[in-house]
Amino acid sequence: MNQRTIAKEVEIVGIGLHKGTPVKLKLEPLEANCGIIFQRNDTLIPLKPDNVVDTKLATVIGNKGEIISTIEHFLSSVYAFGIDNLKVIVDADEMPVLDGSSIGFCMLLKEAGIRELDEPKKLLVIKKEVEVRDGDKFAKISPSSNLEFNFGIEFEHKLISKQNFSFNLSSDSFLDEIARARTFGFLRDVEYLRSIGLAKGGSLDNAIVLDDRKVLNPDGLRFENEFVRHKILDAMGDLALLGALVVGKYEAFASSHHLNHLLTKEVLSDEKNYEIVTQESSYSYARS
């Protein structure tokens, strides 16, 4: 099993969620052992937990005063396609939101194609359970033979209430079960965010919006439990900051970008928690 990059350069223009202005995203292939590197202006921002600068509304990375926000939807698709080395060039301080899910990024990666490199792929194998908590909220990862997700949420809204979803990452499952799940929010929160200059690009075209009784999107939900599926999508993108394909079981209840970030830092804080190996794995990539 070898490392992967994309076969050719591709680019796309979309709206930023918070600024509401056009964002140009360009992807370029990189050679083996380079990792995922973001670029904003002339500043390079390698993808690693130490470069996370904010997690309140999204995962935000930065370096030398330059930041790039809302990277998690894009990274979940990169993770599912098994891409290890990639340059991500953005001409704004946030990624394009597209339709609020990862499917548009998957289509972009399909257009780029996949090129296998000559170096073996690195896997991060979880050796012992690691957990972070905030009251009853938690995120943890424990040893397993592949990458599993089990996520639970609970909201005081009749259309969400309690939801739980389990998911094993495989060639088909991400595209079929996770990639199309959109980000969501409540109308009252959207109104508040706009009052402080955020969510200017948010609309029913790129998010699920709920009032106190119903989903406002005319076409409704893509999945009955689309909300918890999107939480797994977010978690996948956040785990990508570990820098290698994870072999382990991720479990969470009401976790957030903040807790996911703390989990990645806690895993890497002690070499007894994990092992980096280069060997064959049972994982199969998303269709490309």
Report what the structure shows.
The chain is of the alpha+beta class and about 290 residues long. Helices cover about 20% and strands about 35% of the residues. The protein contains six helices and 19 strands. The strands form five sheets. Strands 11, 12, 13, 14, 15, 18 and 19 form a seven-stranded mixed sheet that branches. Strands 2-3-9-4-5 form a five-stranded mixed sheet, covered by helices on one side. Strands 6-7-8 form a three-stranded antiparallel sheet, with no helix packed on it. Strand 12 and strand 13 (about 135-140) form a beta hairpin. Helix 1 packs across helix 5. The longest helix has 14 residues, at about 225-240. The radius of gyration is 18 Å and the shape is globular. The relative contact order is 0.22. The mean pLDDT is about 95.
